[in-house]
Amino acid sequence: MLRLKNINSYYGQVHALKNVSLHLAKGEIVTLIGANGAGKSTLLNTLSAITPARSGELLFEGNSITTLSPSRIVELGISQVPEGRQVFKPLSVEDNLELGAYLRARKRAEKGAIRDDLAMIYELFPRLKERRKQMAGTLSGGEQQMLAIGRALMARPRLLLLDEPSMGLAPLVVQEIFRVVEALRKEKGTTVLLVEQNAKAALTLADRGYVMETGKVILEGPSGELLENHEVQRAYLGKEKKEIWER
Amino acid sequence: MKRDYLLFLLFTLVVLVAPLAFEGGYLLNVLVFMGINTMLAVALNLLLGFAGQISLGHAAFFGLGAYISGVLTANHGVNPWVALPIAALSVGVIAFLLGFPILKLKGHYLAMATLGFGIIVFIVFNETVEITGGPSGLTGIPTMKIGAMEFQGEMKSYYLIWGFTLLTMLLSINLDHSRIGRALRAIHDSEVASRVMGVNARFLKVQVFTLSAVISAVAGSLYAHTMTFVSPSSFGFNFSVELVTMVIIGGLGSIFGSFLGAALLTFLPELLRVVQDYDIVVYGLLLIVMTMYMPKGLAGGVASLARLLRPAKKRTVDHAQG
Questions:
Q1: pTM, full prediction
Q2: Among candidates A70, A105, A134 on the partner chain, residue whose Cβ is nearest the Cβ of B196
Q3: CA gyration radius for chain B?
Q4: If you average pLDDT over residues B72-76, what whole number do you get?
Q5: What mean pLDDT value characterizes chain B?
Q6: Cα–Cα distance between B296 and B114 in angstroms, integer?
Q7: pLDDT tens digits, residue range B209-229?
Q8: Which end of chain B has fewer surrounding CB within 10 Å, N or C?
Q9: pLDDT given for residue A206 in this prediction
Q10: Domain residue spans in chain B?
Q11: DSSP labels for B240-292?
């Protein structure tokens, strides 16, 4: 479904992605883990054309999307939930969701479908429905994350890019959000690329994983294997060397 | 949404009957200026309050509209009704071309760039003496006519200008409630997030900048044909700052707020005649007090007052609904 070939991207002067290649099959949940500054968010922003690739090729469903504009990418069915949620704080919950369908709303014929999707999101996150007239800035962190996901879903993506959805949230809320991601895949066949620092939770949810370090992919494999990998355990799962040896 | 249109209808009625209370004369003249200032403040609010982009050079667009219209009619005998769209269109083209490079800048840098533009235009007005008349101004600008009726005198000017002002307000209210208005507010809050939603932020900012400039130019043209005289001093840096003050005091992002801000800043100099040169001190104090105690401006203040005055029971119900 998605394939990155030798992507190079710069964040300002910093060479943030160095010959990154990865791929996602349809219906897969793939996670990208790594420390701060590894280039995970840059990778998502390169996919969304916010930080366009300097070289390399991006293929989505077989077509090159390397040089397309951010709006064209959204139209093709790639939607991002940006890091730190970035909901539009002074706008109401409902306005935020409507903005997710910004491009679709150009066509009058889509009006009904947008209504339906709004109802679908409210069903998925009943708490958003309760608060739909409220300013998004007054929501709790977890609710804002739900809103950010709901907003991205309003574009009817086939590929959902999630940037650190667990950031700053209580474990129970993270569980709830991951449960929704799983449900989306099951019910709609949505493919998901999940960027996370919470490596354990992410690898438990995902089918496969990639590990990034200073702009490069250093490891890849099925989640189970990565969870067992000593290097991953030491660097990202907080297990001491001693603990690993003792087993 | 409906409330805004209802308020607009009410406002229109008040505007239509207001002059009858004044029977012409000095106070009506102030109301004419209030109309022009309201139009300018609403235009700037689209950029500053909706899209969150500062302009410290909006007096330049107002001035360009006035001078293009003035020069075409006074020196080249063009009909004012033809000169007005020409002025609006040329200023639109200038703003559009200027917008692309300038709106890539953010915050203070954008403020500096627009300030620079304003100063350049001001200097051009002063120095191109053969065309604009230089510092002593441009005289002999004809008034607008429809058939045999000439828009001369306070009463007719009032209806001409307020007609355009009401039109501007209606257009802005419509924009506010459209998906474009929502997208502009999204850009204001987080440009990156809005782009991820597929909003073409860069182009949309240029478009709203252009729209804002075009409305300002129309106000300029109307000003020129009402005053029949223009001079550079009306379009300097001070006036740009005054426009920003109107928008902020009125309330960022509120159309009726812009009217309140414009009304206050048009009337205040008249009231402050008694304190003479110290009026600037009162402005300063007003800005400080307003930003401290009424950060949402006059519009926000009126809204909270209305909420306070509502029966307590209804308030609790509202609360329960969230």
A1: 0.89
A2: A70
A3: 20
A4: 95
A5: 90
A6: 24
A7: 999 999 999 999 999 999 999
A8: N
A9: 95
A10: 2-237
A11: HHHHHHHHHHH-TT-HHHHHHHHHHHHHHHHHGGGGGGGHHHHHHHHHHHHHH
Distance CA B311, CA B315 (A): 7
B149-150 and B145-146 beta bridge pairing: antiparallel
User: Amino acid letter at A116?
Assistant: D
HSE of A96, CA atoms in CB hemisphere, 13 A: 36
Using an 8 Å Cβ cutoff, are B207 and A124 in contact? no
- Distance between CA atoms of B16 and B68, rounded to whole angstroms? 30
Residue in B closest to A76 by C-alpha? B198
Distance CA A238, CA B165 (A): 65
Q: Which two tokens stand for residue A227?
A: 């969870």
How far apart, in whole angstroms, are the C-alpha atoms of residue B243 and residue B40? 7
pLDDT at B319: 47
Q: List CB contacts of B57: < 8 A, sequence separation 6 or more.
A: B114, B115, B116, B117, B118, B119, B121, B240
Helix orientation angle between B237-250 and B297-309, rounded to the nearest 10 degrees = 20
Q: Please state, in angstroms and rounded to a whole number, the distance separating the CA atoms of residues B158 and B36.
A: 10
Please state, in angstroms and rounded to a whole number, the distance separating the CA atoms of residues B32 and B25.
Answer: 11
pLDDT of B261: 94
Helix, strand, coil tally for chain A in percent (to 5): 45, 25, 30
Domain ranges of chain A: 2-246
State which amino acid sits at residue B88. Answer: A
Give the rounded percent of residues in chain B with a pLDDT score beyond 90: 72
- Residue A247: the pLDDT is 54
- For helices B237-250 and B279-293, angle between their N-to-C axes, nearest 10 degrees: 40
pLDDT of residue B103: 95
Paired residues of A23 in beta bridges: A3
pLDDT in tens, B28-44: 889 999 999 999 999 99
> What per-residue confidence (pLDDT) applies to B260?
95
**Region A115-120 average pLDDT:** 95
The pair phi, psi for residue A182, each rounded to 5°, is -65, -40
Min Cα separation A72/chain B (Å): 7
Interface touch A91/B321, C-beta < 8 Å? no
* Alpha-carbon gap, residue A107 to A156, rounded angstroms: 15
Q: What does B112-154 look like in DSSP terms, one character per residue?
A: HHHHHHHHHHHHHHHH-HHHH-GGG-EE-PPPPEETTEE--HH
| Span A42-84, pLDDT tens digits | 999 999 999 999 999 999 999 999 999 999 999 999 999 999 9
Residue in B182, B192, B200 closest to A50 by CB: B192
CATH superfamily of A2-246: P-loop containing nucleotide triphosphate hydrolases (3.40.50.300)
A84 has a chain B CB within 8 A of its CB = no
Q: How many residues comprise chain A?
A: 247
Handedness of CA B38, B44, B49, B55 (dihedral sign): negative
Chain B residues touching residue A98 (CB < 8 angstroms) = 179, 182
Distances (CA, A) of B290 to B55, B145, B240, B246, B294: 20, 42, 19, 11, 5
Q: What are the residues whose beta carbons fall under 8 Å from the beta carbon of A159, sequence distance 6 or more?
A: A1, A2, A24, A60, A77, A78, A79, A190, A191, A192, A193
